[in-house]
Amino acid sequence: MIALSLAEIATVVGGQTYDIPDPAVSVTGPVVRDSREVAPGSLFVAFVGERVDGHDYAADVVAAGAVAVLASRPVGVPAIVVDDVQAALGALARHVVERLGATLVALTGSVGKTSSKDLLAQVLRRHAPTVWTPGSLNNEIGLPLTALSATDETRFLVLEMGARGIGHIRYLTGLTPPKIGLVLNVGTAHIGEFGGREQIAEAKGELVESLPADGAAILNADDPLVRAMAARTKARVVLFGEAADADVRAENVRLTENGQPAFTLHTPSGCSDVTLRLYGEHHVSNALAAAAVAHELGMSVDEIALALSEAGTLSRWRMEVTERPDGVTIVNDAYNANPESMRAALRALVAMGKGRRTWAVLGQMAELGDEGLAEHDAVGRLAVRLNVSKLVAVGGREASWLQLGAYNEGSWGEESVHVSDAQAAIGLLRSELRAGDVVLVKASRSVGLEKVAAALLENHTEGEVSGR
Questions:
Q1: Hey, how many other C-beta atoms are within 10 angstroms of the C-beta on 44?
Q2: pTM
Q3: Are 212 and 235 in contact, with CB atoms under 8 Å apart?
Q4: How far apart, in whole angstroms, are the C-alpha atoms of residue 210 and residue 208?
Q5: Residue 100 near residue 75 (C-beta atoms within 8 A)
Q6: Block mean pLDDT (10 aa), the chain, length 468
Q7: H/E stretch holding 294
């Protein structure tokens, strides 16, 4: 974080100082909420969770080098005490970004937020010092913590914004007002919470409504609900996609023999060829989104194409490809799942597995509400249509819907199986995998299918991880 004295922080957040011998002492290290991340000069933010109360770690973090604790009660060590720790954290983030000379870029969407953010970060950091959201820390706590990690040298601050309801993105843009807003798509992720795609579009569009007149709204030309958001912003609109009228578009899209996308990138200032290190054609849209933002920020098309071609995955369990020495390829995409990302991952599996036996180890897609049965059934049916060799549906009711959809589509019989949990899937795969097989592992995070991928890679540490 940029250096701020404890006295200044107390003023910004409207807090009272306790047990602080010298209010002129500055926070020079990171602002953290995890006591394990404390470093000399840190400010520790004490949240009260369901199982852990950060206030209980106050003495330990100060002993480890924290300058003070941002807390909701006195803790016997240097502290700034406020009524609402989350609100105080947000106020501090707003104060810091207003002092930065950085350009704020915010992005949202139903699918591909983290992958697109990681691509964009890797492109922009070649151009100037860049700070970006780590992993998927895109909520009212993770976003301000990311903003507070920027320094005086930061020129681009890339912030992923998630939403689980109307008003969430409006709140986040109030904390960190963006100059450039990117909307990737409107899908069915969290549709059970929102109630429909139109409501999701309303929530995602809050990002472009927040943009200033001299800003830019980067919109997906291939998604009608996103394209329509052009009417909701006073900022200049830039379209990306494969549509003929997109300002930044892809032509001659194809997959390499390894399932990696290649295309010609067209921008208003020229064109250049791109071959991604990532897997699956769905990453073309993510790459175009990153390219549109980078072009808006002054990068040349050749710089952008080179950076995209060299970019890998920064966040774990997202199409993380590892080839074992025996030729078995594990595709760990177990961080999360929704209908759109499931379909994309299945198509990527088939593209990677040409001439090889393919396994789709799939579990529940959470938060689909009344659409759950139909969506799980459709994914099971798609696995059959794509000629996936084996479907392993893992879990309870939703997994049974996956398996039933596959069975009804093609009378698969032995080609689809429903198992109770990750351990059962591990046992099945260990007994039946053979050299050359390709295994996709994917479900919502709560299912924990990353355990399957990890188990299949045990004792195979000399394998190579691709897409990094």
A1: 31
A2: 0.88
A3: yes
A4: 5
A5: no
A6: 96 98 96 96 96 96 98 98 98 97 96 94 97 93 97 97 93 98 87 81 97 98 98 98 97 90 97 95 95 98 98 86 94 92 92 93 93 95 94 96 91 78 96 96 94 90 46
A7: helix 283-296
